[in-house]
């Protein structure tokens, strides 16, 4: 298993994690597919979404796989007027990652990151390792060791 930039970053910061591999289905890049293939609770699979504020500044959001991002709540906690989803065509350019393999760790730049506060209910959560087919399993509190992160309620179920 080849280490990704995200995994190497966690290594440098001495963050404990485990790489979890799963079979990729190009037609189903959903968190539900990841949950089924890794035999993990969907509530512990955290998807990484990239938004932009009114000044086109990226803001990263991580929410449970079965939830939806509340863009108004994200804008409020980020102290901006509004957030919109980053167009898919810009994901690689902004983050260095592709859809279905976007990790909050190891992006081209460190962006403000918000993780839904519910992540703290779990001892371990999974986020993309930066490639399709690999997840990082780690303690959600360890996000703070590597990222400019805030834990806030940003999803609506």
What would you note in describing this structure?
The protein has 157 residues and is α+β, with helices and mostly antiparallel strands. The chain has a single domain (5-156), classed as YbaK/aminoacyl-tRNA synthetase-associated domain (YbaK protein). It is built from five helices and ten strands; from the N terminus they run αβαβββαβαβββαββ. The model has no long low-confidence stretch (mean pLDDT 95).
SSE diagram, text form:
Elements: H1 5-12, E1 17-21, H2 31-38, E2 46-53, E3 58-64, E4 68-69, H3 71-78, E5 83-85, H4 91-95, E6 112-116, E7 125-128, E8 134-138, H5 143-146, E9 149-152, E10 155-156
Parallel strand pairs: 3-6, 6-9
Antiparallel strand pairs: 1-8, 2-3, 2-5, 4-10, 7-8
Short description:
This protein has 157 residues and is α+β, with helices and mostly antiparallel strands. It has helices at residues 5-12, 31-38, 71-78, 91-95, 143-146; strands at residues 17-21, 46-53, 58-64, 68-69, 83-85, 112-116, 125-128, 134-138, 149-152, 155-156. The chain has a single domain (5-156), classed as YbaK protein (Alpha-Beta Complex).
């Amino acid at each position: 298993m080849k280490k990704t930039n995200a995994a190497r970053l966690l290594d440098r910061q001495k963050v404990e994690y485990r790489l979890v591999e799963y079979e990729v289905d190009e037609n189903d890049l959903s968190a539900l597919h990841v949950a089924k293939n890794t035999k993990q609770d969907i509530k512990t699979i955290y998807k990484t979404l990239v938004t932009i504020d009114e000044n086109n500044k990226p803001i990263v959001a991580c929410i449970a796989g079965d939830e939806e991002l509340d863009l108004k709540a994200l804008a409020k906690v980020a102290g901006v007027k509004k957030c919109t989803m980053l167009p898919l065509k810009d994901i690689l350019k902004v983050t260095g990652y592709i859809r279905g393999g976007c990790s909050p760790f190891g992006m081209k730049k460190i962006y403000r990151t918000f993780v839904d506060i519910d992540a703290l209910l779990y001892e371990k959560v999974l986020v993309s390792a930066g490639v399709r087919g690999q997840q990082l399993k780690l303690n959600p509190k360890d996000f703070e060791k590597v990222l400019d992160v805030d834990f806030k309620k940003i999803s609506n179920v």
